[in-house]
Amino acid sequence: MLNKLKQFIFFEQVKQEVKKVIWPNQKELIASVSIVIVAVLLFSFACLVLDYGIHNLVSFLLNIRK
User: Fold this and answer.
1) Is 33 exposed, middle or buried (0-12, 13-18, 19+ CB in 10 A)?
2) Residues 13-57: pLDDT tens digits?
3) Where are the alpha helices (DSSP H) in 1-66?
4) pTM, 2 dp
């Protein structure tokens, strides 16, 4: 019984905290999502370039180029 009461109190507190959150408007959300997408693309491209460079360096050092 006490456990269910604690759970009820917990969910009531969660509900109160969610009401305090300031949610972004559509313009802010689109800007944030755009920044994340651009950052992921740039990071992916940097990883691609590093992977290609390290592959070529190891191939050159081990003399296994085709």
Assistant:
1) exposed
2) 999 999 999 989 999 999 999 999 999 999 999 999 999 999 999
3) 2-20, 26-62
4) 0.63
